[in-house]
Design brief:
mainly alpha; 94 residues
Length: 94
């Protein structure tokens, strides 16, 4: 294994190193909690907004700041699920 691939592997399994990466992970975790607790709060809109915001910040951190932490890549998933849910609400009749 070369020194460069070892460094990349170490960065991938580390916690986020950029501020945007940390915010993205926090917002994604918050969105999951808020969406699961929607019956207590009376709506999941705040969770949806946190999910979209976390995904956008994660994409910016990966593309512009070269963040390579697996947690940042994982924080893109809640925004994807929110977008699929919103598209399903508009495209599929009830």
């Amino acid at each position: 294994m070369t020194n460069e691939s070892a460094s990349l592997r170490k960065r991938f399994f580390a916690v986020p190193s950029t501020q945007l990466g940390r915010w993205a992970v926090g917002l994604a975790a918050g969105s999951i909690v808020l969406i699961l607790a929607w019956s207590i709060l009376g709506g999941a809109m705040l969770g949806f907004l946190c999910g979209i915001g976390g995904g956008v910040l994660a994409l910016v951190a990966v593309i512009r700041q070269h963040e390579r932490s697996w947690l940042v890549f994982l924080s893109i998933l809640p925004s994807f699920w929110v977008l699929i849910f919103i598209l399903g609400e508009f495209l599929v009749p009830h």
